[in-house]
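pipeline stage [seq->struct] | target=Ser/Thr protein kinase RdoA (MazF antagonist) | organism=Janibacter cremeus | residues=262
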Amino acid sequence: MAPLCIAGSGETVVRNGPAWYSLHRWVEGQQVSIGGRDALIRARPHLVRELAVMIATLHMVGSQDLDEGGEGDPDRLLRVPRANVRRIHGSRRRLVSRWQVLRLKPRKSDFDRWALRVLPEVAARAETLAKNSIAHRVPRSETGLIHNDVNWENLILDEGFHVRALLDFDNVVRAPWALEVGAGAVVLVGADPHTVDQFVSGYEATTGAAFDRDLVRLGMELKCVRSIITSVLAYLDGGTDTRLLAPWCHHLHESLQLVQQE
């Protein structure tokens, strides 16, 4: 962890609206986009295990009893994508839903056409996920705090492409670790079964855990579905550059198709 800094008020934790933040020293390094992921992994295969160890370490720290209000709801994250689909299709407080605005848009971009084609399929997966329950399959010992937004934009690498820092803990929740292992795998190393197995094995070797691989696969699917829907929702609300958004969504959709083929 980067060393803590002290604000002018003498505090190491500051408040911004309803949120609290700790202040840390600036971390020097470099970032890689998801478009450069596969080439980087091929050139530096050590990253597969290193990224798994990063998530494992995070979970071991989060395994301590932090009095976060009990065990939480293991199925909560599975319902999030469906809720966002309803926001896209809903017209509450709007004359026309976001979806109808997109359908009626006279000059559609390539991303508009992609979203219109793909979102119904992804929304159907969101509905299936929401009806699923894993509560009976996840022991309390395999549930704890998760980062909940692991992706390349939140990673800082050093000059040798080793992990230096993980950023952005705004979305931390208590949830089954297997879901984040799956989410981390599909975003950080892709959906190739052999590479995913290396990633999961690296996590298990670090923590001593042995996950149900079906739950890991569910986490991969959940990440793809959730992030596609969240990205499209952000786009429909305006202010999102499709030059960055489109490659991200395309990678997620390709990975989702690969996961579903297994």
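stage status: PASS
auto-comment: The chain has nine helices and six strands. The longest strand covers residues 13-16.
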